[in-house]
């Protein structure tokens, strides 16, 4: 196969950036998309030019590192497939393919196709956890969990944090990412004690990071390589409303004091 | 999770909730329900334009208008108007705040972008909204205050409608506005249930159908009047 | 070099408990005065960093990825073992211990393995409490499956994404501490040198991969949880960024390297398609529960699988190992596949593959049941190969998957450099010569949640918290060495890319130090690798500068280290004149082709000591004493 690539090149965050064109002759249909980039880069290096910087790691669709908008779709045209598992057989011979980074002010470009997604880590740090310090756990079977809920929680937990939802959203909203974690924990009994605090804290952090607002387009769900549903967004909305109505309604009169 | 002050005053709580994107969206959803309710009621009232004169020789629509103005010793209509205005201002204000955030969230747009799941209606909310807003202003000038009406008679609702809408230009404005409103409602009705967390995967299809049906009802009901007026089918 | 494993005295089931009592504690008020540096944020690193911070220590954590959540533990599919005996099928701590020692072909340290089996039960409890969505039965209780070579159902799992879910649990615990200000997280940072002051690990030199800045971080203890070095083979199931640099730097600073030749080749990976291939994808071993492995009986039989009648198929695992059949341990299954392909009976366009057939299982259980169990794996297979495994048998081939070798550590997981602790796959400790399925996740979390927090405390209680001056000669020297190396790499501007060297090294390793090794081949490798290394330092082309993000420079540094590490692996494989677990020496096999151990001469750990550039490393020995498990020939027949 022959492929022509239009690739976004940007030196650093403050650089304006531009597209450059590269030809790739002799592409095998069994190559993954990232292997195509490898081949292009090998050539660039030998020509004494800077290779295209792109994030990648596991190359088996689970680490969430790869993050390229391929022809106007995050991770490319194939549903539920990350760029690393997208194979060139998904493209016609002679195709001209446009590659861009995730575009969102909360994900500033680091270089070329690499963006900074640390905003996601900060959303998790704000509340995307169950406070269970090591050593404090009861027996694993002490708390039976309805299979349906465990399965639903697993659906949400499948999120790989790649950011395709933000990239695909016309508003660059991070609601699907945030909701996937909040919803996973809201579906499990372990997540109940912090459920309402979690909803407000994660949403507040998400807003603070400069993501846009969700207007229920559903593009995130279509782009999600794990097919996470926007039903989880509805659940987070519900929890957030509940938490906001509940806030300050009950207040204990005194806190814990250290024993003598 | 950072500890919040446990006794934040209610006002501060409300302000912080409303500065959140979800809070603003809840405002849009709740005011959307109110405005949608008004649209339905307004349409039901207006469809009386098809009814003939009563035994007393008064047009049904005029009688209905008279009743509205008299309700609650003439107070009800002002309460309703104030409520509507508030809902409108909040709806538009929240939309503006959210849109600004979204624009700021993607300062550089894609050279190539392919839509997959979003609908034409969802992508044009920020167009259909302002169109409806401009239309409301025109509509008030046209049929409430009469300054944009060639032959406005106070209290003569039936007359104002049949003559005002018989003009091709005005009729065209109404047609465009109602189509925009239909698109706006199609996404809005579906979306507000999602925003309020009232959706359920089992009823997802139902929700889509209901939104489409309600939007179609509003468009057809409301559009029939200017078209009938232009065609001269309304009783005169 | 003196190797003291510091194994506590007493009966095996009491060792850890007694040791916990004997260890010193740091006064709670003093904990915040100590700083621990944790390198790597996979299961071992993230769990250690979170737990140490919960205890009150200052923690700084480092990973080369853009987020700690991307560490390669995330790719583990199958599950995690624990001796819970929830299935009432006769499991116990002792049985898990025994299975692990036996599965490791009697080359692991008993006391460590017993402790691993003991804390395995706590791991499950901890992960459940964090909200890890383990698979459940309709009654709401945890589900189990049997896995790779075990005759009890002790494996806990979360669909085919167990590693992901466990890692996210640890990552969330870590992020919670980051949010509380107890952990300072440095993502996109790579360790390039260890700072050793007066024989103690006192800091690390890292490169900020975005800005290129080289900086030293000082601490009172250093934890390396940087994973395995299987990428020395180039084609492996590892993430592309996985590397041996951290442990190799530590080795060159004086940490002994245990059993470098012990590598695991996983039997169920998707075969190579061509020269462009950059990595191999693993299919969970759980597939072997229902899939049957076969090749045509006739060499060179190129008919499509459906046209090969039942009696012309060779279900070789079932034939050779009737009691374990398709569930034979990984090393055995891998070698058997290699033998079939070497005999010309391999399938697929390259002849390097065997069938994994679900035809019978689909007929017996129905397609729905198979989809329920393996749906996501089947989908992944189809995505990669474009074949539908519900219709056509899968094709699989072995690939490098895990390294049992790693930095030598004592019972406290401390290396031969005081203050340098090593956890997870980066150490050599618990799996002997072969790791059982679903045991890697167990070991990573055991080390991080339940071992290091105690043993590091014991170490810190014995030392004073002291600052390390930024201009200390050791710091300066380490930073200068890092800069000089980068500059050297950037100045060569030769004619070959880093990847071409990596591929060439991988081919040498796979050919001579892979599933089957022999003296001649290993000696050849020991000629080829230094020659390749010499060429690398003269002819590699690393474009760009060191002052910004430069992925070529990153991989050049890693490959430079692999070019040294690969040589040590071959040397170790050559010296170990026996076959055990993943280390199969062709010269040492029984008449029917099974591995033959030599317990007289090799029931020991080989701990290699760096002796300086251009000098042969020194092979030290830690004898393994089997007091509780009777040494036996491993048989899965």
Architecture overview:
The complex is a heterotrimer of chains A (260), B (236) and C (637). Chain A is 33% helix and 11% strand. Chain A is an alpha+beta fold and 260 residues long. Chain A folds into 2 domains: 3-111, Beta-grasp domain (Ubiquitin-like (UB roll)), CATH 3.10.20; 117-259, Fumarate Reductase Iron-sulfur Protein, Chain B, domain 2 (Orthogonal Bundle), CATH 1.10.1060. A 5-stranded mixed β-sheet of chain A has the order 2-1-5-3-4. A two-stranded antiparallel ribbon of chain A has the order 6-7. In chain A, a hairpin with a 2-residue loop joins strand 3 (69-70) and strand 4 (73-74). In chain A, helix 2 runs parallel beside helix 5, helix 3 packs antiparallel against helix 5 and helix 5 (175-186) runs antiparallel to helix 6. The radius of gyration of chain A is 22 Å and the shape is elongated. With 236 residues, chain B is an all-alpha fold. Chain B has one domain (23-105, 119-231). Chain B contains 9 helices and no strands. Chain B is globular and about 60 Å long. Chain C has 637 residues and is an alpha+beta fold. Helix content of chain C is 37%, strand content 14%. Chain C contains 17 helices and 19 strands. In chain C, the strands form 5 sheets. Chain C has a 5-stranded parallel β-sheet with strand order 5-2-1-9-17. In chain C, a hairpin with an 8-residue loop joins strand 18 (604-609) and strand 19 (618-623). In chain C, helix 4 (93-103) crosses helix 5 (110-129). Classes of the chains: A alpha+beta (260), B mainly alpha (236), C alpha+beta (637). Chains A and C meet through helix 1, helix 2 and helix 3 of A and helix 3, helix 5, helix 6, helix 11 and helix 12 of C.
């Amino acid at each position: 196969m022959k492929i022509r690539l239009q690739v976004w090149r940007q030196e650093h965050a403050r650089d304006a950036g531009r597209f450059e064109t590269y030809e790739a002759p002799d592409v095998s249909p069994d190559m993954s998309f990232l292997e195509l980039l490898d081949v292009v880069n090998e050539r660039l290096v030998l020509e004494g030019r800077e290779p295209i910087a792109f994030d990648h790691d596991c190359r088996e669709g689970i680490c969430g590192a790869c993050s390229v908008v391929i022809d106007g779709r995050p991770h490319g045209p194939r549903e539920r497939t990350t760029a690393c598992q997208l194979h060139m057989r998904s493209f016609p011979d002679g195709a001209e393919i446009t590659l861009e980074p995730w575009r969102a002010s909360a994900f500033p470009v680091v270089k070329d196709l690499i963006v900074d997604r640390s905003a996601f880590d900060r959303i998790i740090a704000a509340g995307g956890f169950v406070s269970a310090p090591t050593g404090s756990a009861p027996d694993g079977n002490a708390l039976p969990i309805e299979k349906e809920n465990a399965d639903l929680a697993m659906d949400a937990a499948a999120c790989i944090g790649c950011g395709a939802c933000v990239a695909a959203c016309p508003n660059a909203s991070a609601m699907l990412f945030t909701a996937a974690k909040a919803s996973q924990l809201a579906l499990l009994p372990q997540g109940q004690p912090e459920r309402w605090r979690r909803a407000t804290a994660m949403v507040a952090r998400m807003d603070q990071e400069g993501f846009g607002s969700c207007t229920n387009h559903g593009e995130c769900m279509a782009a999600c390589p794990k097919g996470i549903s926007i039903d989880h967004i509805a659940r987070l909305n519900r929890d957030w409303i509940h938490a906001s109505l509940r806030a300050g309604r009950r207040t204990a009169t005194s806190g814990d004091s250290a024993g003598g | 999770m950072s500890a919040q002050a446990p006794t934040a005053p209610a006002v501060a709580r409300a302000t912080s909730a409303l500065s959140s994107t979800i809070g603003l969206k809840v405002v849009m959803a709740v005011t959307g329900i109110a405005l949608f309710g008004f649209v339905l009621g307004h349409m039901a009232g207006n469809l009386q334009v098809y009814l003939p004169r009563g035994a007393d020789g008064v047009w049904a629509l005029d009688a209905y208008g008279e009743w509205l103005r008299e309700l609650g010793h003439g107070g009800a209509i002002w309460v309703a108007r104030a409520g509507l205005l508030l809902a409108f201002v909040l709806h538009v204000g929240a939309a503006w705040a959210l849109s600004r955030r979204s624009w700021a969230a993607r300062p550089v747009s894609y050279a190539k972008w392919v839509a997959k799941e979003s609908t034409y209606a969802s992508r044009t909310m920020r167009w259909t909204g302002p169109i409806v807003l401009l239309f409301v202003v025109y509509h008030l000038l046209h049929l409430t205050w009469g300054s944009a009406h060639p032959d406005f008679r106070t209290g003569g609702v039936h007359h104002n409608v049949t003559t005002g809408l018989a003009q091709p230009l005005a009729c065209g404005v109404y047609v465009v506005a109602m189509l925009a409103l239909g698109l706006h409602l199609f996404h809005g009705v579906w979306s507000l249930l999602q925003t309020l967390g009232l959706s359920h995967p089992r009823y997802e299809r139902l929700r889509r159908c209901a939104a489409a049906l309600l939007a179609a009802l509003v468009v057809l009901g409301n559009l029939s009047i200017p078209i009938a007026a232009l065609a001269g089918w309304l009783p005169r | 070099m003196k190797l003291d494993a510091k194994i506590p005295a007493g009966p095996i089931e009491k060792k850890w408990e007694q040791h916990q009592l004997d260890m010193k504690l740091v006064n709670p008020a003093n904990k915040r005065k100590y700083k621990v540096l944790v390198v790597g944020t996979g299961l071992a690193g993230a769990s250690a960093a979170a737990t140490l911070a919960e205890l009150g220590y200052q923690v700084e954590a480092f990973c080369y990825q853009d987020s700690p959540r991307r560490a390669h533990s995330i790719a583990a599919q199958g599950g995690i073992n624990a001796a819970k005996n929830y299935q009432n099928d006769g499991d116990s701590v002792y049985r898990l211990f025994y299975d692990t020692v036996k599965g490791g072909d009697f080359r692991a340290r008993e006391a460590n393995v017993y402790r691993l089996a003991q804390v395995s039960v706590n791991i499950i409890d901890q992960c459940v409490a964090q909200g890890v969505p383990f698979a459940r039965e309709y009654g709401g209780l945890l589900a189990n499956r049997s896995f790779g070579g075990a005759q009890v159902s002790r494996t806990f799992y979360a669909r085919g994404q167990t590693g992901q879910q466990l890692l996210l649990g640890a990552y969330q615990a870590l992020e919670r501490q980051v949010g509380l200000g107890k952990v300072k997280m440095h993502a996109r940072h790579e360790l390039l040198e260890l700072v050793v002051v007066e024989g103690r690990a006192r800091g690390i030199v890292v490169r900020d991969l975005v800005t290129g800045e080289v900086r030293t971080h000082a601490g009172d203890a250093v934890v390396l949880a940087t994973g395995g070095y299987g990428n020395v083979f180039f084609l492996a199931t590892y993430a592309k960024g996985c590397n041996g640099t951290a442990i190799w730097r530590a080795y060159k600073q004086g940490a002994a390297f245990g059993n470098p030749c012990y590598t695991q080749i996983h039997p169920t990976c998707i075969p190579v398609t061509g020269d462009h291939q950059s990595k191999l994808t693993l299919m969970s071993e759980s597939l072997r529960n229902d899939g049957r492995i076969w090749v045509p009986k006739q060499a060179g039989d190129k008919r499509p699988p459906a046209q090969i009648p039942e009696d012309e198929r060779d279900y070789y695992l079932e034939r050779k190992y009737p009691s374990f059949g398709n569930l034979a341990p990984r090393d055995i299954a891998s070698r058997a596949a290699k033998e079939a392909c070497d005999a010309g009976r391999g399938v697929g366009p390259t002849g390097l593959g065997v069938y994994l057939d679900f035809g019978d299982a689909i007929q017996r259980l129905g397609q729905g049941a198979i989809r329920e169990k393996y749906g996501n794996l089947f989908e992944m297979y189809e995505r990669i190969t474009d074949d539908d495994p519900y219709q056509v048998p899968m094709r699989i081939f072995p690939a490098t998957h895990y390294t049992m070798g790693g930095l030598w550590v004592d019972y406290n997981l401390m290396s031969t450099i005081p203050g340098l602790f090593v956890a997870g796959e980066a150490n050599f400790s618990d799996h002997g010569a072969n790791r059982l399925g679903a045991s890697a996740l167990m070991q990573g979390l055991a080390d991080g949640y339940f071992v290091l927090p105690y043993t590091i405390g014991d170490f810190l209680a014995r030392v004073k918290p002291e600052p390390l001056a930024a201009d200390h000669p050791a710091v300066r020297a380490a930073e200068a060495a890092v800069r000089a190396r980068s500059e050297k790499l950037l100045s060569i501007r030769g004619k070959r890319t880093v990847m071409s060297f990596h591929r060439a090294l991988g081919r040498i390793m796979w050919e001579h130090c892979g599933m089957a090794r022999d003296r001649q081949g290993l000696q050849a490798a020991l000629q080829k690798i230094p020659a390749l290394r010499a060429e690398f330092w003269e002819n590699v082309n690393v474009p760009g500068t060191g002052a910004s993000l430069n992925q070529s420079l990153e991989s050049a540094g890693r490959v430079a280290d692999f070019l040294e590490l690969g040589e040590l692996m071959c040397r170790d494989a050559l010296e170990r004149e026996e076959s055990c677990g993943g280390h199969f020496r062709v010269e040492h096999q029984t008449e029917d082709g099974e591995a033959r151990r030599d317990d007289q001469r090799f029931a020991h750990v080989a701990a290699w000591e760096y002796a300086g550039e251009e000098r042969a490393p020194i092979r030290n020995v830690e004898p393994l004493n089997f007091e509780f498990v009777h040494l036996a020939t491993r048989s899965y027949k």
